[in-house]
Design a protein that fits this description.
Length: 407
């Protein structure tokens, strides 16, 4: 490797993108193309970056497997940053194995962190943790240690383990300072904000207040009877009743919890669950059926009793009844939650992260765009979506698909 290539690589490692480009901008040999591709990605021109990296990979000979593997890793990083989550993960697995076999443990670890970050974005927390478990960050450069700690913190936040998240973010901040890369320090600062921003609302006794992630964790560890409107489940002590696939039953349970310790009139329940204007005989019959189903599901933790006016929720053990709701509730909030990271997403990536069909996500995006809440750039398969306005100051971790502690 000649001196210009070495100097450009060192400049990129230190975050000096323009300094790297000055050294290789006029060269078309594979190492220069690869460095130019990485530099263009740092500048945000992902399309040009991918083109340069593909040219570089084609230019490396059959004996330069490590160089080709590094290009694959760089392409995977661009795909992750541009939220192209459908890129072939198998290629990254092969590249990671090649790098590890040839002793390039730093780039092999980087490939592992990219895999873990992708798992984190699509809500596969167990896979992210398994990937991290195979990585030892201690001998790695400071920038890689910071990336490792950021992924650990991301998993901890989604698991609602705020103590572990705080520790990981402190490690990430120290490593980012050692690396002296401004963009990395800004990413750590942004991630740290999630621990202090409002993460949810608690509704009880007709009043509501916002909670931080730490307060949410404490609430879930308490003995309260919790109707969780973030993940559509009902929890009490160690018992959890998932209702994500039963929206009518969840609407009824939430209405009962919000009114507790009072009962809820039948007209109110019909309006909340069925969107009916008044409880005629047909709606009353349907309400009795759905209340019977809810009573059966809640039997281990609560009773649902009929009253003269309507129905009453009665937990088996003495406990406060609260509703845990997202910090803001609006249509297609889960889509806005993902777009709130400030990156541009494809509809296919959003569908993968949300576990929904692409057409369902496209309809949601079209509705949000008509309301002026999201905007798009590009056309056809290159179209990307982003928020039209900056999201309010709250973390959206609880809006995203993930299991609760103990589930």
């Amino acid at each position: 490797m000649d001196s210009l290539i070495t100097a450009a690589a060192r400049a990129l490692a230190a975050g000096d993108v323009l300094g790297a480009l000055k050294r290789v901008a006029l060269r078309d040999d594979p190492p220069a193309l690869a460095l130019r591709g990485i530099a263009m990605a740092r500048l945000g021109d992902y399309a040009r970056a991918k083109e340069l990296l593909k040219r570089a990979a084609r230019g490396f000979g059959p004996k330069e497997a490590v160089a080709r593997a590094r290009c694959v890793v760089a392409e995977a990083e661009i795909a992750l940053v541009s939220r192209d989550l459908g890129w072939p993960a198998k290629e990254l697995d092969n590249a990671r194995a090649t790098l590890a076999a040839h002793g390039d443990h730093t780039n092999a670890a980087h490939a592992g962190h990219l895999q873990a970050r992708r798992y984190l974005l699509i809500g596969q927390l167990d896979d992210a943790e398994r990937t991290l478990a195979g990585l030892d960050p201690s001998p790695l450069p400071a920038a890689t240690r910071a990336a490792h700690a950021l992924v650990v913190a991301g998993v901890a936040v989604r698991r609602l383990h705020t103590g572990a998240a705080r520790t990981a973010l402190a490690e990430a901040a120290r490593a980012a300072q050692d690396a002296r890369i401004a963009a990395l320090m800004a990413e750590v600062h942004s991630a740290s904000h999630a621990l202090h921003a409002p993460a949810a609302r608690v509704i009880a006794g007709g009043e509501q207040r916002t909670l931080s992630l730490e307060e949410v964790e404490a609430l879930l560890a308490s003995h309260s009877f919790i109707v969780d409107a973030c993940r559509y489940a009902i929890r009490c002590a160690d018992v959890a009743v998932p209702l994500a696939s039963r929206p009518v039953l969840f609407a009824l349970a939430r209405a009962l919890a919000e009114a507790w310790p009072a009962d809820v009139a039948r007209d109110v329940l019909v309006a909340r669950a069925f969107r009916g204007k008044e409880a005629d005989e047909s709606y009353r019959a349907r309400l009795r059926v759905e209340m019977g189903r809810l009573r059966t599901l809640l039997k281990p933790i609560a009773a649902v009793s009929a009253t003269k006016q309507g129905f009453l929720l009665e937990p088996h053990r003495p406990a406060d009844v609260v509703v845990l709701a997202p910090p803001t509730e609006e249509d297609h909030g889960e889509v806005l939650a993902l777009l709130a990271d400030g990156e541009s997403w494809s509809s296919s990536a959003l569908a993968l992260a949300l576990g929904a069909s692409q057409r369902t996500v496209q309809r949601a995006l079209e509705t949000l765009a008509a309301a002026g809440k999201v905007q798009w750039v590009g056309h056809a398969r290159s179209r990307r979506w982003m928020t039209a306005l900056r999201a309010p100051g709250f973390t959206t971790a609880l809006l995203l698909p993930a299991s609760l502690p103990g589930e």
